[in-house]
Automatic annotation (TrEMBL):
Gene3D superfamilies: TolB, C-terminal domain. SUPFAM superfamilies: DPP6 N-terminal domain-like. InterPro entries: 6-blade_b-propeller_TolB-like, DUF3748, WD40. This is DUF3748 domain-containing protein. The lineage of its organism: Bacteria, Pseudomonadati, Pseudomonadota, Gammaproteobacteria, Enterobacterales. Coiled coil: none annotated.
Length: 424
């Protein structure tokens, strides 16, 4: 297959791990961070994969920065990205606790998650920073990871990452706003439950991260019930010997908005001594019970579900210590190992829109795992240096795969066409 270099300008072009294609499949969205950990991009942009034309989607002002942009699955003029604080100073500047999600449309940014960092806290608002915002398949709901400023101020030890969602049913306005507080267009709740000191050998987790929506429309439970909304995420458990072991967890989410307003053991909005808590109707459930190191954290990847919701893909080492691609049902059970070679899977991955394959980097090539043939298909030539690990993303119609290579010191975007004749 022939890969095509889409971008050429002498600066970085950073794709997010999924949802980087415009709804019509004509453009790819990216930011201009010079490195993954340097959040200094002033703009988010899109490039037409056919013409190479670059369009600025949004430019931050007042000292803020933007990045990690994703595209709405059905609206060509709707995107989400992380937005750093305006007028940053020594007390409030960009970090994991001081960032927000914004919807970009028509050149304007609308803040998703309200922020309330002074008591009494507000139901539907959060108290810190949100990160890597992903639309559900219908574009209705948004998931993201979350770090709490209030608890971080108490102690660095209490800095626990969680998974949260934004619901479009109700905007949130704060009373008596303090500096650095703001309203939000969506109602936000934390859906994972973390414990500061998890009991060794238990299902308690210290952190929750790298979440993914289950199915285009949810999944079929063992009882024959269709669960419309669900999220899988990695939860960091503690083994009996004290090792931190990442495992896969799932939360089934209610259809009814009212259920998101009903508190469980702890207030949804949090307290001065407790993180924001999941609503009473949301209980996390553990799916994997690893005997070894658990889900792989390197390469960094996000859990991704098949379109029909029947499989959750993830990376984990096999008995020989090689990082392989696996799947597990959202109903639990034994995981299934897909790849079996001697090379580590080298990247994050995405599913073909029909679910017939998964694409990722393996042996310095972009490859597809074909579920019908149960084998790997290489779609780029093997090179001395692997493509970048953060993003290997199918287009909406499954006809192209986007990825990045470092060329003369800059990350450039490439695509490779995947024809039906080649696939079959």
């Amino acid at each position: 297959m022939h890969e095509v270099q889409v971008t050429t300008l002498p600066h970085h072009h950073q794709l997010t791990n999924a949802q980087v294609w415009s709804a019509d499949g004509l453009c790819l969205v990216y930011d201009r961070r010079p490195a993954q950990h340097l959040f200094t991009s002033q703009t988010v942009e899109k490039v037409n994969v056919e013409t190479g034309q670059v369009t600025e989607i949004y430019r931050a002002t007042q000292g803020a920065h933007v990045g990690v942009i994703t595209a709405h699955p059905h609206d060509n003029d709707c995107f989400i990205c992380i937005h750093g604080p305006e007028y940053p100073d020594e007390f409030w500047q960009y970090d994991i606790h001081h960032r927000r999600g914004v919807i970009l449309s028509g050149g304007k940014a609308t803040t998703i998650d309200a922020c309330d960092i002074t008591p009494p806290y507000t139901v539907g608002a959060l108290r810190g920073g949100s990160h890597v915002h992903m639309f559900s398949h219908d574009g209705d709901r948004i998931s993201f990871t979350y770090n709490d400023h209030v608890m971080h101020q108490r102690s660095l030890e209490e800095d626990q990452r969680n998974v949260a969602i934004a619901l479009p049913h109700k905007s949130v306005s704060l009373r008596n706003k303090a500096p650095r507080e703001h309203d939000g267009s969506h109602f936000c709740v934390v859906v994972s439950e973390t414990t500061l000191h998890p009991q060794p050998g238990s299902d308690q987790i210290l952190r929750a991260f790298e979440e993914g929506w289950i199915g285009h429309n949810g999944y079929l439970t063992t009882s024959g019930h269709w669960q419309r909304w669900a999220l899988a995420f990695i939860g960091e458990t503690v083994a009996f010997d004290g090792r931190k072991v990442p495992e896969i967890f799932i939360v089934d989410l209610p259809d009814d908005f009212y259920a998101y307003t009903q508190a469980g053991q702890h207030p949804i909005e949090g307290t001065e001594r407790h993180l924001p808590a999941p609503p009473a109707a949301i209980k996390q459930r553990r799916l994997t019970f690893s005997e070894g190191a658990g889900v792989a954290l390197h390469p960094r990847h996000w859990l991704r579900s098949s379109p029909d919701g029947s499989k959750i893909a993830f990376l984990m080492a096999d008995s020989a210590g090689v990082i392989q691609l696996w799947t597990i049902s959202p109903n639990g059970g034994l995981p299934e190992q897909l790849t079996e070679g001697g090379h580590n899977v080298q990247s994050a991955f995405t599913w073909h829109p029909t679910g017939k394959g998964i694409t990722f980097i393996y042996d310095n090539q972009v490859v597809i795992y074909d579920f019908e043939q149960k084998s790997l298909i290489a779609v780029t030539a093997r090179t001395s240096r692997a493509p970048c690990a953060e993003a290997v993303v199918w287009s909406p119609k499954g006809s192209k795969i986007a990825f990045m290579r470092e060329i003369e010191g800059f990350r450039q975007i490439f695509t490779v066409a995947v024809t039906e004749s080649y696939w079959c």
